[in-house]
Amino acid sequence: MKETLYMKASPKTIAPNVVLSGDPWRVETLKEYLDDAVKVAFSREYNTYTGTYKGVPVTVTSTGIGAPSAAIAMEELYACGMKVALRMGTVMGLTEDLLGSFLVPHASVRREATSATYVETGYPAVADADFVKVLNDTLAIFGEKHSNGLNCTVDGFYSQMRESRLSKERGTDIEETLAAFRKLGVSGIDMESATLLVLGRLMGVKTAVLTAVTVLGNLEKTIEGEKRDALERKLCHIALEGVHQLHLRKGELWHEE
User: Fold this and answer.
1) Does residue 61 lie within any of the structural domains?
2) Among 118, 160, 180, 225, which one is most buried in terms of CB atoms within 10 A?
3) pLDDT band at 148 (very low <50, low <70, confident <90, very high)
């Protein structure tokens, strides 16, 4: 097949195991943990490398912000033979005890619109159970605190997650929105996870989510500077080790055919 439209990828350049970061520049940190990393392309918001981690072939790439671009990445990677997908990145926590810890949700509330273009809204956004367990165990190996709380994915950052000049002018109550999510038992909010989980399930791709809680609702508290850099670097390492541990559990490495 020709290169994909947006990511400029092909089955020859993409590994069966993919780690997806929202931030394109976080991919530069991910690739530092890979052996023999080869740049596939940096096209639009998609910064992509392929290499190996402890012998496991892995592609690391970015999706940018939001569900539509994340769905494009999933489609193009699936066309290239992706079999395992791990969404890793940051998430807004809704309880203070989560700040600085990790969230590996079993499922996500579908409050974005992209997944509804694929399947009815009653279809669940659920992570692969085996992969969730492996990520839990991997975090334990690193000695990191984590939660399996419910994720919620939305489309509007400045209309649903963070107060802005426009939200104030229009009388949008962000705190009321966040309170409603808390009543649903939501632990963290992002803009990609539900879409990735729905598509992963439809594609038969083992898909899970690993996120670090770097801010609390409406940015009332944040982790900044060197502390945030260290947390994100650890997130990258744990994500790749999680993919490796998944293969150890299967008793084999998944290589391209």
Assistant:
1) yes
2) 160
3) very high
- Token pair belonging to 190: 């992002």
| 3-state secondary structure at position 134 | helix
Half-sphere exposure in the Cβ direction for 233 (13 Å, CA): 8
| Of 17, 65, 200, nearest in space to 125 by CA | 200
Q: Is residue 90 part of a domain?
A: yes
What whole-number distance in Å separates Cα of residue 80 and Cα of residue 15? 8
In the prediction, which pLDDT does 1 show?
82
**Phi, then psi, of 227 in degrees rounded to 5:** -65, -40
At 174 the three-state DSSP class reads helix
Q: Specify burial of residue 187 (Cβ count, 10 A radius: 0-12, 13-18, 19+).
A: buried
Under DSSP, is residue 109 helix (H, G, I), strand (E, B) or coil?
A: strand
How confident is the model over 57-75, as a mean pLDDT? 98
Domains of the chain: total? 1
Provide DSSP, 90-146: EEEESSGGGTTSEE--SEEEEESSSGGGTS-TTS-EE--HHHHHHHHHHHHHTT--E
Integer angstrom CA distances of residue 213 from 223, 232, 251: 9, 10, 32
Q: Which domain range does residue 143 map to?
A: 17-250
Which candidate, 40, 30, 67, 36, places its Cα nearest to that of 243? 30
Domain holding 143: CATH number? 3.40.50.1580
Where residue 49 falls (left for φ over 0; alpha for ψ -120 to 50; beta otherwise) is beta
**Would 133 be classed as within a structural domain?**
yes
Q: What is the SS3 assignment for 224?
A: coil
Of 209, 200, 205, 99, the closest CA to residue 152 belongs to: 209
In the three-class reduction of DSSP (H, G, I as helix; E, B as strand; rest coil), residue 167 is classed as helix
pTM over 0.90: yes
Residue 75 maps to a domain: yes
